[in-house]
Amino acid sequence: RVVRAATIERLAALSPAERARAGTFAGTRITLDDMAAHILEHDRSHARELAALVDGDVRIALERFAGGME
Predict the structure, then answer these.
(1) Average pLDDT of 62-67?
(2) Which of 12, 35, 39, 57 is the one with CA 20 to 30 A from 28?
(3) pLDDT band at 41, cuts 50/70/90?
(4) Which residue, among 67, 31, 28, 25, has the nearest Cα to 46 in the 3D structure?
(5) Rg for the chain (alpha carbons), in Å?
(6) Which H helix or E strand runs over 24?
(7) Residues 6+ apart with CB under 8 A from 29
(8) Can you tell me the distance from the alpha carbon of 7 to that of 20, in angstroms, rounded to the nearest whole number?
């Protein structure tokens, strides 16, 4: 959590021009804005998995977890 919060804080402090800077991640060109979107979707995916568990739908939670392992 601490590292994720620090990453988000640093990204939020960047200007639009700084966020447009690109690099390579997993063999693909990606900007810092792209990375922020990836982090957001990753965290939302975990939130959906947790919501499914809270709702008692373990099967859906496990399917989502297994799907993310590919």
Answers:
(1) 70
(2) 12
(3) very high
(4) 67
(5) 15
(6) strand 22-25
(7) 22, 23
(8) 16
Q: Going by C-beta distance under 8 Å and a sequence separation of 6 or more, which residues neighbour residue 61? A: 49, 50, 52, 53
**How would you classify the pairing of strands 28-31 and 22-25?**
antiparallel
> CA 54, CA 41: separation in Å to the nearest integer?
20
Structure tokens at 6: 């620090």
- DSSP assignment string, 3-49: HHHHHHHHHHTS-HHHHT-EEEETTEEEEHHHHHHHHHHHHHHHHHH
> Which residues, listed in sequence order, are joined to residue 22 by a DSSP beta bridge?
31
Tokens 């982090």, located at residue: 39
Task: Tell me the C-alpha distance between 29 and 70, whole Å.
Answer: 21
Own/partner pairs, 10-17, CB within 8 angstroms, 24+ separation = 11/35, 11/36
